[in-house]
Amino acid sequence: MFSINSQKERFMKLKYIIPSFMAVVTMLVGCSDKFEAAYLDDLRVSSSYIAVPVDGNYPAEFVVSAKGDWQIKNVPDWLTFTPMSGGAGDTKVTVSAPATSDSKAAVVKIVCGTSVQDVNVVQTVKKSEVVLSVAQALAVIKDKPTGSSARVKGFVCKIDEISPQYGNATYYLSDDGTYGADNWIEVFRGKWIDGANFATGEEFAVGDELVVEGTIVLYNDKTPEFSQGSSVVSINKSLIGIAEVEMLNVPEGKGVTEFPLEGGSVKITISSKGNGFHMTIPEDAKAWLHIDDFGADYVTLKADANEGDPRSVSVVFSTEAEGVLYSCEQALTQKGVAPAVTDVTVAEFLAAEVGTAEYRLTGVISELYYYKEAVSGFYISDYSGTVLVYKPNGFTGTEAKVGDVITVVGQRGAYKDSPQMVSGACESNISVNEVTLDEFLTKPDAKDVYYKVTGVVDEIVNTIYGNLYLKSGDTRLYVYGCYPGWGATGDARKNCLANKDITVGDELTVIGVKSSYNGTPQVNGGIYFSHKKANQ
Description:
Blueprint: E1 6-10, E2 38-39, E3 43-45, E4 49-51, E5 60-66, E6 70-73, E7 80-82, E8 85-86, E9 89-96, E10 104-112, E11 115-123, E12 131-133, H1 134-143, E13 148-163, E14 168-174, E15 184-190, E16 209-219, E17 223-226, E18 231-236, E19 240-247, E20 258-259, E21 264-272, E22 278-280, E23 289-294, E24 298-303, E25 311-321, E26 324-334, E27 341-343, H2 346-351, E28 358-371, E29 374-382, E30 385-390, E31 405-415, E32 418-430, E33 432-434, H3 437-441, E34 450-462, E35 467-472, E36 475-483, H4 496-499, E37 507-517, E38 520-532
Parallel strand pairs: 4-11, 12-13, 15-17, 20-26, 27-28, 30-32, 33-34, 36-38
Antiparallel strand pairs: 1-26, 2-3, 3-5, 5-9, 6-8, 6-10, 7-9, 10-11, 13-14, 13-16, 14-15, 16-17, 16-18, 19-21, 21-24, 22-25, 23-24, 25-26, 28-29, 28-31, 29-30, 31-32, 34-35, 34-37, 35-36, 37-38
């Protein structure tokens, strides 16, 4: 199923008058059991939302539960954490800040190995009755990115999730109901009216107008958002929506929004409380999508046969009431000839244009990517470079781990000029087992079983191809080749040690298979993973 995007557009330009953005007064937010703890296998926090008293009279507290050493990062000057680091077990951490007359907010990171937990910290003043537009809220955030409390009115232009399981929702507001470049503010894990949990997942829809109250910040220096803990103040339901979609002349066609390759017809039934409705087909789709029938509360659209790539369109329906134009969109797609998948290196992928062409990458997972406490992809590295694979289909972080060799297929995308693979899927995965040098020596020779080993470079035998000895304790292991990354062949394998400034005494981690030469065990074709200089 494809999601239905909706939007509202004002007939008349609305004028908002406020004395000064910096004069926006703020709301009082307290810690409560509404803000659930965040969980990873080896790192937990008792609360991911901390409210520090505005008068600074007493500290807030939370507990870090870790399976190894951890530390707190990204701490702004106005906050004090005690302690800033710790070891395995449960550690109580206090958070304090001096008294303030302005609202503040920050997101700090607790790091344990490759696991990262975000903790939202706010220090807010008092509730505001002033309601900002989204444009005004964005201006406030630009002027004061660390946090301000505000009420913001906007139309829901995109919904990531309304979760009855967790009682919160993540969605986006804009002034005109469109989700475009830099015209929205994200509401991250917000609550329903008066802080209540969402119970059904259908409390609001794209196109509805909401007033939201909470702390607005610039998350990670790039995402304007309401921090976790906001709530809806009021809702104005849209006057137009999609009542039903049915693909005609196909079995079980209700709810189907994808035309078959040979073309077909779809009936869209409209629910409107305005003065009838009007429909618009985008210009670039008029060559293949046509109106077949039009009634008081429905329209039937016909698609021609498709001999090319898969295609998509969003048809806009609108109605007027009391000088306001409300509208919604129905997304439709059509099957096409399956595009060819091109095998590329990371460097070739980065050089490709943003688009729908399909590419296949194989490399090592060098790092998991977290977005607000949740695994949202990973970085894949080969000998030519590294790129983010953003939210591959079905990937939760348990299907593969850092160090594994993975093959993914997806499209060249970008987020604010930062390259990434999007619409991706994992094709295959080679599990790489991390072992000590002693454990590696006990393994049988095998050409298709990969291990990750770490040791101190004890001797370099060949600087060009990276033949060397690793040592750990009294154990010494020969590495037959240290290559710059997965997929390197020919000249690309040469001079890895010099290019990465790896010398005797450095700690080196490589990935490879176990083989033997003249009865002596060795790592065959070592793939560089990471290293630490001896003086670090």
